Amino acid sequence: MDPSTRPPEISSLIRLLDDRDPFVTDQVGNRLVELGTEAVPFLEMASRGENLTLKIRALEILGRIAPRQLAEAFRDLSHTHSGNDIDLEKGVLLLMQFGHPSADPDQVHQQLDKLAEGLAPKIKPQDPATRVLEQLTDYLFGQHGFHGNQENYGDPDNSYFDTVLKNKTGLPISLSALCILIGQRLEIPIVGVGLPYHFIALYHSTDDSILFDPFHKGRILTPEKCSEMVRGFGIPFEDHYLLPVTHREILTRMIQNLINVYQKLGEEEKTNSLKEYSQILMGQK
Predict the structure, then answer these.
(1) For all residues of the chain together, what is the average pLDDT?
(2) What is the pTM of this model?
């Protein structure tokens, strides 16, 4: 169909959304979902109108379209750098939009900027790695009170950055991602380390390598302590567990955490959408 003919078609479909015949509304809904992004402005307008039936049905269809739009956004993200690593910040903001569609990515970006601006004066160019890391962890986990959510570990909000920043709590991987994103703004070389069952972070430069644990307020870890931790999970330790992981791997693991959560909650649609995003990032779709 010629795109120029679609606005009149979409307007007609919107008007049919409050038809009394369920067959008609089902067919109309399916067609609007098929039109996807083109239908979104019309549906958003209907969702703000006074017709309650139209509003409810428009919101339901928007909810069906959103996962498809995000799939395309994840596909674009995955191909952004032609085989190089992805933009972690864009990735966590896309994931946030999946869980909290009304969250504002620009606001989260600004909150991260503000955190970095507050830390910047505390760090001097000549500071050794130990001093920089001490300032970073004291600032985030001491002064600002970020901490691991041990009481409600399985809460999906631990993975979405708007609520991580609001509640100042999260999973090991989301708090490690926070350190990475603040580090990027200040040229502090923080990377992720994907230990089995417990994600940690690493100050990683040509001169220094310091492992630390954002879930436990940035405590410093030795390789021996990491080995002990992994063996405590019943897994034989292997040296490669201490290697840095890519941003693509971080985002994929964050998605897998949410898949595990929503599977336990019996939320099949969310689980299936997240599996699709994971497959896209891994180049399987």
Answers:
(1) 93
(2) 0.86
